[in-house]
Design goal:
It is a single chain. By secondary structure, the protein is an alpha/beta fold. It has one domain: Phosphatidylinositol (PI) phosphodiesterase (TIM Barrel). It contains eleven helices and twelve strands. The model has no long low-confidence stretch (mean pLDDT about 95). This is Glycerophosphodiester phosphodiesterase.
Length: about 280
């Protein structure tokens, strides 16, 4: 099988993003070997960032340690040395041989294993700008500097993106509006046009807009092409997250491909690629 990088349909290429560094559904999240593999092959891959006690970032999704690692307590209260001693947990909750990585660890690893020119690593910041201080921002810029050509910063707080990219001005950005008041208002009103306008206005420099796939499909059923509207504004769309490959999700992905999503985030790139490899 070819590497699960993209699906081509009707002249449009949709990339498959390896969510949390997973190539297939059985993979654990955030392991260095898989992330390096993805970047070597030219894949799109996503990792999450959470601020730790020593003014840096851990490659973790949760703000607490228990679910993803062998540690306990808040990431924010845990120092770099302690984090590096923790092991990741697999999908079954059992400890893995793999240790928790910090952002600088991952960047150093990728520096020793040069990425494919088309590889794209999404750094998804899970907090807002209040979690950032000057030391944290400076450390971020130092870590990502050598890899800017292969990175995109994303998050649900446009202000946080602005703070971090001010220190790393060549870093590309994306924006996820599917959190907070704007999403609550969308659920109440069904006003997909307003939601799209506000998302574009909130992050005018964002190259990619990250949208929950069910919002895209709900807008489509209501007669509004959200992806088309964002394309008209000169941006790209990532539809997230297809967690498993089954009859229901294959139908959803088929429609996302017809709507020309630029990228689909999935926990099973290999399974999704195989299902559409015709």
């Amino acid at each position: 099988m070819d590497a699960p990088l993209h699906i081509d349909r009707d002249g449009h290429r949709t990339r498959l993003k390896w969510h949390r560094g997973r190539r297939k559904a059985a993979d654990p999240a955030f392991t260095g070997a898989r992330i390096v593999e993805a970047m070597r092959l030219g894949a799109s891959v996503e990792v999450d960032l959470v601020v730790h006690a020593d003014h840096g970032f851990a490659i973790l999704h949760d703000l607490t340690l228990e679910r993803e690692t062998t540690g306990r307590g808040r990431v924010r209260d845990t120092g770099a040395a302690a984090l590096r001693q923790l092991r990741l947990r697999g999908n079954d909750g059992e400890p893995l041989p793999d240790r928790v990585m910090l952002l600088e660890d991952l960047c150093a690893l990728l520096g020793s294993e040069p990425p494919h020119p088309e590889a794209l690593l999404q750094l998804d910041f899970k907090q807002d700008a209040s979690a950032l201080d000057p030391l944290t921002v400076a450390g971020f810029a130092s870590s990502v500097g050598p890899l800017l050509a292969n990175l995109v910063l994303s998050g649900g707080d446009a202000d946080a993106n602005d703070v971090l990219t001010l220190a790393a001005p060549m870093l590309r950005t994306g924006y996820d509006p599917c959190y907070g008041p704007s999403l609550d208002r969308l659920r109440a009103t069904g006003d997909y046009r307003r939601f799209t306008r506000e998302a574009l206005a909130a992050a005018p420099k964002a190259e990619i807009v990250y949208l929950h796939h069910e919002i895209v499909l709900a807008a489509d059923r209501a007669g509004y092409d959200m992806i088309g509207a964002i394309h008209d504004a000169g941006r790209r769309v990532d539809a997230w997250t297809i967690r498993q490959v089954d009859d229901a999700t294959l139908s959803q992905v088929g429609r996302l491909l017809a709507l020309k999503a630029d990228q689909i985030t999935t926990d099973d790139p290999e399974g999704l690629f195989a299902a559409f490899d015709t």
